[in-house]
Design a protein that fits this description.
This protein is an alpha/beta fold. About 40% of the residues lie in helices and about 20% in strands. It has two domains: about 35-210, P-loop containing nucleotide triphosphate hydrolases (Rossmann fold); about 245-425, Nucleotidyltransferase, domain 5. It contains 16 helices and 14 strands. The strands form two sheets. It has an eight-stranded mixed sheet, with helices on both faces. The longest helix has 26 residues, at about 1-25.
Length: about 425
């Protein structure tokens, strides 16, 4: 009886182990889980360019392609290139969809961070590089490479040139590029290259692996914006000809942002005079000035509100941000704007401003500050960015209220006499 019981337990344990191994094998069987647009295209391409939205599975696709090259195609010397050394490591190597994660334990390579190398049991080696130090690509030679987020590189053409000189081993050296698109000249050049195979995809292609609330929020918040077309649907959104702002300026303003002490904070308001489905928005922008004289857009609170709602929002955020002043355009509301605000807070510091010059004259100096790298964005503000990048002097119609509020805020912080010397003289 004891013998039979032990045998039964042994068989049950053996069955469980077989099931566990089967699940592990299935988990790492990329060809079973990958969508068609995540598998290498046919043909004799030299580069495979994947232009896809956030959450598409670009990183997993890049890592799995490298894994396949190493284990099935005999690749032995590879380059991994991210925007920075930190991103190469944290995303491409150690990330949840990076190279270490996509290998089953028995195949997993060794990562030697001090040497910036990944070593496979079969002798293959991948070396990590940063686009900001592309000169390190001089000298080494490769039979394969993976570039992640190429459209973010500041000098993508120079990175590419150095890689191409070194991609000279094997019978058919190849490179896979995984990136969310931006309208950069080099990316457009790649799209015209007959030796580049292009795969396009959207965030929603990977819906089964993404949280439904995330998808709902993305579609509602960004679906009808240029940012959404770019970041979700992977379109190359061309710049609006003649606009004072462009995507490059906005992206740089976000990339340069650093948290730090602020010497002043203001809330600027461009109030709407009516409230209805077709009414103008009330522009409400929170902005600050760093100790070094950099303007920082902290929050965009704009929207269509009843009068009491936007007044309450401005007063509440005045205290939340410990702002120094509320700046409000009074062309339409006159003294009523100040009266409404003081009903809620009589001690509020207030400055009314009147547009005596044209919008272009007011906006151009602020756009110039962006060009000089003297304005940062603390976050992504899709609707504000849409207004900035689509406003063309003399051609745009409607009232860009968010833009107006931003201009008033930065004018008060940076172009008033007490601060203009510090900003323009630097």
């Amino acid at each position: 009886m004891i013998h039979k019981t032990a045998l039964t337990q042994f068989r049950a344990a053996l069955h469980r182990e077989k099931e566990r191994r089967k699940k592990v094998e299935d988990f790492y069987a990329w060809e079973r889980h990958a969508r068609d647009n995540q598998l290498p295209p046919p043909g004799t391409w030299h580069a495979w360019l994947i232009l896809a939205g956030r959450g598409f599975g670009k990183t997993r696709t890049g890592a799995e392609t490298v894994r396949m090259w190493v284990h099935d195609k005999g690749y032995r010397h590879l380059a991994l290139i991210g925007e920075t050394e930190l991103e190469t490591r944290h995303v491409m190597v150690e990330g949840s969809s990076g190279l270490l994660s996509v290998h089953p334990p028995r195949e997993r390579p060794l990562y030697e961070s001090s040497k910036r190398q990944i070593l496979w049991p079969n002798g293959a080696v991948a070396t990590c590089f940063s686009a900001t130090a592309y000169e390190q690509l001089r000298g080494p030679q490769f039979d394969g490479a993976w570039i992640d987020e190429l459209a973010k590189f500041r000098e993508s053409d120079k990175v590419w040139d150095q890689l191409m000189f070194g991609l000279r081993l094997g019978a058919a050296p190849r490179v896979i590029i995984t990136t969310t698109p931006r309208p950069t000249p080099f990316l457009k050049q790649l799209l015209k290259d007959p030796n580049v195979a292009v795969t396009r995809g959207s965030t929603f292609d990977n819906a089964q692996n993404l949280a439904p609330p995330f998808l709902t929020h993305m579609e509602r918040q960004y679906g009808d914006t240029c940012l959404g077309r770019q970041e979700l649907y992977a379109e190359i959104v061309e710049e609006t000809k003649g606009s004072l702002w462009n995507r490059v300026l906005i992206e740089r303003a976000k990339a340069d942002f650093k948290k730090g002490a602020l010497q002043r904070i203001v809330i600027a308001v461009d109030p709407a005079v009516t409230n209805g489905p077709k009414s103008d928005e009330t522009g409400i922008i929170v902005a600050g000035l760093t100790q070094e004289g950099i303007g920082v857009i902290l929050e965009d609170l704009s929207g269509r509100f009843a009068t009491h709602s936007w007044v309450q929002s401005v007063v509440a955020n005045y205290h939340h941000w410990k702002a120094d002043r509320v700046v409000a355009e009074v062309n339409m509301g006159g003294d009523l704007v100040e009266q409404l605000l003081r009903v809620h807070d009589p001690s509020l510091s207030y400055k009314g401003v009147r547009a005596t010059r044209g919008k272009v004259v007011r906006a151009e100096p602020i756009a110039a500050l962006y060009e000089q790298g003297k304005v940062w964005h603390a976050s992504t503000f899709p609707h504000l960015e849409e207004q900035l990048c689509s406003y063309v002097p003399g051609q745009s119609y409607g009232s860009p209220d968010r833009l107006d509020a931003l201009v008033w805020a930065l004018t008060d912080l940076m172009l008033t006499p007490s601060f203009s010397g510090q900003i323009w003289g630097s």
